[in-house]
Amino acid sequence: MSIQQAGSSRRNKWVALVDGTNFFVSCERAFSPRLHGRPVGVMSNNDGCIIARSDELKALGVPMGAPVHKIQHLIRRHRIALLSSNFTLYADMNRRLNDILSCFSDRVEPYSVDESFVELSGFFTDGLLEQGRQIEQAIAQQAHLPVGVGIAQTRTLAKLANSQAKLKRQGPKVSVLDADADSTCQLLEATPVEEVWGVGKRLAERLRRLGIDNAWQLREAPEAMLRKRFSVTLARIQMELKGQPCHDGSGKETAKKQLRVSRSFGRASDNQQEVLDALRHHVQRAAEKLREQKSLVKTFSIFLRTNPFRSDRPQHSDTLLYQFDQPTADTTEMLEAARKLLRRLWREGYHYHKAGVLLMELVDASPAQLSVLETSETQNQRLKRERLMQVMDRVNLSQGRGSVTLGVGMKEAGWKARQEKRSPAYTTSWQELPKVVAR
DNA sequence: TCTGGGGTCCTAGGACCC
DNA sequence: TCTGGGGTCCTAGGACCC
Asked: pLDDT per residue over A365-383, tens digit each?
């Protein structure tokens, strides 16, 4: 196993991590002035727990992931505004953010729904700070979103620089971290090891037992020991802390290797038909994603699970796999597979709480993948269905997701998540455009 | 009553083969 | 009495991320 090094750490090659501050909350605020200056939270699917918090909500001591039902007393006392998540809006705002970033660099790599890496070349350190400010300003002006910008030689350091930037009380939230600067030693010493990107709770515990408590100690630890006692992953993190890039941008835009669609139900169900309805929905969505990235699936699977928090009820959780004879992107074939699998997986007397679909072993949908043994008749059928899928995808893209489905409509189904406080799809639905009223 | 969803990468260990 | 060793492939599960 070798450590892959992507390029050398030449002084003029830098990477910026641009990250939306309290992103989901900021997206909501961009369209709703009443949300400014008060505690705001965005809830998970099903309005179950808190997945984004404004600074005011953080100040009240509400932790990330807090179950909503456990903070009811705070909600009333402090006039907390809670919103259901509106991922259509957040994804669209993310697209805008990346459009703006692409004016600053032709190498922008979206990393998650609220952050992107941007390669910056040919700058000296002070020029970098100014560049970061311009990025921050452009996003504030054009997308009305606050961001933090962290710049360094590697992504791991840019992550740390970004957290530094966000700590700034006033002025631009931009920070540059030079791996070779003297000040970096102090900063890394003051950084607990679990705050390093890629070091979670478990690894941190093990590192602490060896006397490695902070980022500087990790950077200076013997590399051979890290590789032997831990893994190549930790050795790469160490290289990155030294300023030698090990993650590069080559992974961008590659097709996903697995796709998953799953949801908890609005209420638990012991009705097989109802669960099948939920799975049908998930299958259709998964198949769309599959066709979007131009892949075919070989191994298909579904899973079911009861609510693990209900220790008073019997628990059942299981997954079943299905192998397609030929890789496919056809929704009808996947629906059929899901139906068969569910019949085998189903157990009477359990209240199921979540169901999902997993597409594994994805292959490229090039014509070479099709069987040479296919008869002209089956080929005709396949082409007809492919055209049907194309039409469905186009309609759903232009008219909104779920406009056309195979089988029963999904409108009032019992498994549907609760989303009682969702904001409108301001930017992606003609029906929900913000209204301006002249007085 | 009420506790998210969707990913990636790596490793250990079993199965199998010669 | 002694009961191989080394390779590959696959899968489950751990750990981490946002």
From this structure: 766 545 555 677 777 887 8
